[in-house]
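can u do me a favor
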């Protein structure tokens, strides 16, 4: 619309000027003084108005460009005065100013938003000009960590703390580096990383600093607490059946001493019980040594073990613990001669954990039953399942039960299943779970 209005006005003025010039030419040819003077005056007036028409638009555009040059987007061009095309032009200028102001406001809001985020993070950040040392931006975290007041140039740090200046600003690092900084007569451990970036002709350096002193101390403290929790949990799981079996054997011996005729001593049972205690005690010692360096284990003490022998050993250990409980524990194998290569002490630990969990899960179940079955696929790989008819595991926590220290029990440490998964991983196997509130839970060990 602006374009059409402008063309019409320009064309009209050009036609008037052309008519004036033709009349002037006619006056010269006919030597008509009145026609010559009149057409000459009209030609001058027409040229003036054409010039004024053109120059006024250029002045308006030049004025707008001047305001853009000095970033003065607050100016308002009148949309109610002047010719129609000028008003339309002013309207376009105002729309451009509105758009640029909106963009600037949005950028300012984003900058403030980013600034607030960087202020909230517990990481020190500073950016400065490499040539002048002028600080472009820094956050409170860096100032608090380094115990510095706000400063506008890094030369302030160079004069006040030369050693800190050298570590922080005068050293270039290609990767994140751990550095000990001396502050307030103590060494502070921090992680420092930096990068250089270019903005037009200026080069800037961005330095990121993170205080890891408190984190290291907290992690060390947590690691000790978790280690003690794990060791206590696993040792108690092993000691409980040993203590129960030892108490049973002691009662048999005491009864025999008091009345040998009514309570004859079965040496075979006594020997089997003592062998179970000895074997599990050795397994417990083995477990303690293995757990101490579980993350560093590169091989296991593998031996060929018959599944029946493994099941018998666990059954003997769990027999005393289940004596006063209504839980029926059954071991089944499809092939009596089935055998596989495992670290028997660690796998015993896994199965004991799973059986104890199953006992807890069946506390409110009528006729509680736990079955431990072993099968072998066509490739000769052994699979052991621990199945119970307990209350099952809620679906919303099934993905979390293997996370270390996650537990739904009030007295649980949340380490049994996590450790079982690690042991199976060491065996290049895996542990899988299926659970249903109506039918119970099945843990499958695949070797």
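np, heres the sequence
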């Amino acid at each position: 619309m602006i374009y059409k209005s402008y063309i019409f006005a320009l064309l009209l003025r050009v036609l008037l000027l052309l008519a004036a010039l033709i009349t002037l030419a006619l006056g010269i040819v006919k030597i008509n003084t009145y026609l010559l003077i009149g057409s000459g005056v009209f030609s001058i007036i027409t040229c003036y108005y054409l010039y004024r028409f053109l120059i006024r638009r250029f002045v308006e555009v030049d004025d707008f460009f001047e305001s853009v040059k000095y970033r003065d987007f607050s100016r308002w061009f009148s949309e109610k005065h002047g010719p129609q095309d000028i008003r339309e032009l002013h309207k376009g200028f105002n729309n451009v100013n509105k758009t640029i102001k909106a963009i600037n406001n949005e950028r300012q809001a984003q900058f403030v938003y980013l600034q607030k985020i960087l202020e909230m993070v517990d990481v020190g950040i500073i950016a400065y000009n490499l040539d002048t040392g002028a600080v472009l931006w820094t956050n409170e975290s860096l100032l608090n960590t380094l115990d510095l007041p706000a400063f506008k140039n890094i030369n302030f740090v160079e004069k006040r703390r030369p050693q800190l200046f050298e570590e922080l600003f005068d050293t270039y690092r290609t990767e994140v580096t751990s550095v000990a900084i001396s502050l307030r007569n103590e060494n502070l451990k921090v992680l420092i990383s930096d990068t250089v970036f270019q903005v037009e002709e200026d080069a800037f350096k961005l330095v990121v600093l993170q205080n890891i002193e408190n984190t290291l101390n907290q992690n060390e403290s947590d690691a000790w607490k978790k280690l003690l929790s794990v060791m206590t949990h696993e040792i108690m799981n092993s000691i409980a059946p040993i203590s129960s079996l030892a108490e049973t054997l002691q009662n048999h011996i005491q009864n025999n001493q008091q009345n040998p005729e009514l309570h004859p001593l079965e040496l075979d049972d006594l020997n089997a019980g003592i062998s179970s205690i000895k074997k599990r005690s050795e397994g417990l010692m083995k477990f303690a040594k293995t757990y101490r360096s579980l993350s560093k284990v590169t091989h296991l003490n593998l031996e060929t073990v018959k599944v029946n022998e493994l099941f018998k050993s666990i059954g003997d250990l769990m027999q005393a613990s289940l004596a006063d409980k209504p839980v029926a524990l059954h071991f089944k194998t499809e092939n009596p001669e089935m055998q596989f290569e495992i670290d028997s002490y660690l796998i015993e630990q896994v199965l004991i954990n799973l059986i104890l969990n199953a006992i807890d899960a069946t506390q409110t179940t009528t006729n509680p039953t736990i079955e431990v079955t072993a099968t072998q696929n066509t490739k000769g790989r052994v699979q052991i399942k621990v199945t119970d008819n307990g209350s099952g595991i809620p679906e919303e926590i099934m993905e979390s039960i293997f996370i270390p220290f996650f537990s739904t029990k009030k007295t649980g440490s949340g380490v049994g299943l996590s450790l079982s998964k690690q042991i199976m991983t060491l065996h290049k196997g895996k542990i899988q779970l299926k659970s249903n509130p109506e039918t119970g839970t099945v843990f499958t060990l695949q070797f």
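Residues 293-298 have pLDDT under 50 and may be disordered. hope that helps!!
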